[in-house]
Amino acid sequence: MQFDDIGFGGGLRAAFASNPENSKGRLVPERESPTRTPFQRDRDRIVHSTAFRRLKHKTQVFFSHEDDHYRTRLTHTIEVAQIARALARAFRLDEDLAEAIALVHDFGHTPFGHTGEDILDEMMADFGGFDHNAHALKVVTELEHRYADFDGLNLTWETLEGLVKHNGPLLGENGQPLDGKPLPRAIENYNAKNDLKLADHASLEAQVAAIADDIAYNTHDIDDGLRAGLLSFDLLKEVELVGEQLAIVDGKYPDLDQTRRGHETTRRVMTVMVEDVIRTAGENLSLLNPKSVDDIYNAGQTIVTFSSVMKTREKELKRFMFANMYRHENVLRVRTQAEDIVRDLFKRYMQNPADMGGEWADQVTKLDQQALAQRVSDFLAGMTDNFAIAQHRRLFDQTPELR
C-alpha cells in the first residue's frame, strides 16, 4: 500500500479515527472550550501537570546526572509524541489524542527507571503489587491536585482508555485478566466508576502511541549506548536491522566522524521502522475496512503493528540490547545501588510515615497497613531520581553515589 492510499500527509479525519465531537466525555462534566477540542485540552493539561515536569529528572536507562545528553523520561516522552503524531497524520487520525496518550504514557514510572518499579513491586507484594500503567491512571485521576472542582486532570474517556489499554486489552471475553493476574487496584477502582471497556482493543491513536514508544526506545537507546561506550559499531553490525543501515551510511559517507555516523544510522533505523508500520497497518486497515472507531475497538486484533519480518528484526535488536547494554555490568552495578535506595526508603516510611512530610504525612496514624503501604508507594513512585537520593541522604548515614 502506498502512502497516498492511506491519506499520508493529513487531510480530513478518517471515519475510523477518534472524533472529539463524539467524545464519551469526562467523569466530571465541564463546559466545553470554544477554542480547543476536548483532546487538545487533554494534551494541554498533561503538559502543564506536575507529573509531566517530574519526568525530566526520572531515569530512562542512564542516570541524568552522568551526562546531560542521555535521555530522561521527559526527552523520551517527547520523542514518542513526535513519532506518534507523525503516524497519526499518516492514517488521518486525531493527532491531538495520539499526542496526549504519548505524552502521558510514562506518568506512572518510578525513579531509577524499571529498577525502581521492580523494587516497588517487590515491596508491595503483600499489598497488591505495583504496576506503572495503573499508577499513571491514578496520577491523572486522583493524585494531581490542580483544579478546584475535581482531583486529577479529568481527562476524556478516550485519553484514559488509551493510557490504560495502549498495549492491548486487559481482559478476555470472559472478563478474566489476560495475564492471569488480578487487575491492578487503581484500574479496577476507576473502571467501576467509568467503564473503559477493558476487553476491547484501544483506539488507533493509542495504538500508534504504543508502537511509537517501541520505535523511540529501540533507536535512542542505541544512541545512548554508543555515547556511554557500552556499544560499539562493530557490535552493532551483528544486528541485522542496525547493521544494514550502518552499511548504507558507511558506503555513502566513508569518512564520517563517529558521532555523525551514529546519528545517521539511528535515524535511518527509525525511518525504516516507521515506514514498515505505515505499510503494515495500512494493509491491515484495507483488510478490516473499518467504518467507525467502534470497528477498531471491536476488531479483535491490534491494527498498528510491525510486519512479520520487522517483528523478527526488532526482537533480535531487543535481545542484543538486553545482552550488551541493559545487562552490562556497569548498568547492573548502578541498578543494585538504586535498588537499595528505593528499598531503604520504603521500609523507613512504613516504620516512620511522618518522615514523608507535608500532606503525605497527614493522619498517617489512622491508616491501616494496606492504606499506609499504598500511600508510601504513591509517594515513592512520584519521586524523581534527584529527590529520592536527597531523601535517602536526609534519612540515612550513607547513600550510594550511583556511579
UniProtKB/TrEMBL annotation:
Record bears the keyword Membrane: no
Biased composition (Basic and acidic residues): 23-42
Gene3D superfamilies in the cross-refs: Hypothetical protein af1432
InterPro entries in the cross-refs: dGTPase (IPR006261), Diverse_Catalytic_Enzymes (IPR051094), dNTPase_2 (IPR023023), HD/PDEase_dom (IPR003607), HD_domain (IPR006674), PHydrolase_assoc_dom (IPR026875)
Tree of life domain: Bacteria
Keyword Amino-acid biosynthesis: no
SUPFAM superfamilies, A to Z: HD-domain/PDEase-like (SSF109604)
Keyword terms, alphabetized: Hydrolase
Domain HD residue range list: 73-218
Sequence segments annotated as region (Disordered): 17-42
Annotated PANTHER family: BIS(5'-NUCLEOSYL)-TETRAPHOSPHATASE, SYMMETRICAL, SLR1885 PROTEIN
Family: Belongs to the dGTPase family. Type 2 subfamily.
Protein name: Deoxyguanosinetriphosphate triphosphohydrolase-like protein
Organism: Ahrensia kielensis
